[in-house]
Amino acid sequence: MTKRREFMTIAASATVAMLGAGKAFAQTGKPLRIGVLTDLSGPLADLSGRGSVEAVKMAVADFGGSVLGRPVEVLSADHQNKAEIGAQIANDWYDNKGVELIIDLPNSSVLLAVQEIARRKNKVVIATAGASSDFTGKNCSPNGVHWIYDTYSLAAGTGRAVVKRGGDTWYFLTSDYAFGQSLERDTASVVKAAGGKVLGEARHPLNTSDMSAFLLQAQSSNAQIIGLANSGADLITTLKQASEFGITQGGKQKLAGLLIFITDIHSLGLATTQGLLLTSAFYWDQNDGTRAFSKRFYQRMNRMPTMVHAGNHGAVMHYLTAVKNAGNADTPNVIKMMKATPINDFMTRNGRIRDDGRVLRDMYLFEVKKPAESKGPWDYYRQLSVIPAADAARPLSESACPLIRKT
């Protein structure tokens, strides 16, 4: 009997050891890698950049660090706002580095270039920072997801709201690449549909240090609204110089920021930005969930998150959940699962991914507070209204996406 007990004890110990080894083996399988392709040093670094990398790492940690026994690793790189550099990095990541998903992608020219690479290589790409609505329009792909905002949603928010408030003549100051051109086009369409008029536009190169000539053209147009179809450092330069020139002091002209981030407001201060209307999918102080995430992010980055940072976290959580539920990381299966699963997190309520890849989500119209209204650092926005998901996305009947079957 003693020998039998000893044999059973040895057998049980061996079984436990084998199970432990199997678990260890499963946890050290081939890594699943996520690539954050971003602007780490240029004009778009504040709105995405290192904050986006950190938000993705937070999501991976929150998910548990692995999926289906595969450790999840995060790569990052600076595309330098050049489509050819972004394409080179994407090709290398997909072909040689085991990357299954590329995310973030500020700068729409880079975004559209990576979209084509992901299409050819049958990999996943999620746009959380690039804005061109062509991503889910004429350049749509079965593998591409536009997670937060696009130029149409920004136009539908700010453009329509400003016209309703009486700003019915517009002049655009536009960043002269795919993002700015798309934002100007979509906003002009919304303005005209709402009964407004577009008097002209001035286009500037990316990362322009002197906006005076462009601002003077906008001023001389006598348009009620100068629509700023730029972002990042270019937007900050524009707002600073517009304030210095006193363009809005006479009360005849107002500035409408078509893509503004809380980091822009923080850099400029409320004295310069008070009264600006803007559209966003996220604000850190909206509810308990947004405050909890933002507190964690602040502890890592010493600043509040933009909607891009928050969106990166949600997109990666949704992607990893889809991989888990699909049982593998094969792109068609993962995309199918992502589209079949509602999106519910601290930023998004009852969102879903449409057939063209556009995430349907509510957007919000905010007004920047006056200095006297702010209770402290980062207390910058007052929410004016909710823009329902159905109004924030381009109707499929108007879509140029070849994946959408017209009736």
From TrEMBL:
Residue intervals of the Leucine-binding protein domain: 31-369
Keywords of this entry: Signal
Signal peptide: 1-26
Superkingdom assignment: Bacteria
CDD domains, A to Z: PBP1_SBP-like (cd06327)
Pfam families linked: Peripla_BP_6
PROSITE patterns: TAT
Family to which the UniProt record says this protein belongs: Belongs to the leucine-binding protein family.
Protein name: Periplasmic binding domain protein
Lineage: Bacteria, Pseudomonadati, Pseudomonadota, Betaproteobacteria, Burkholderiales
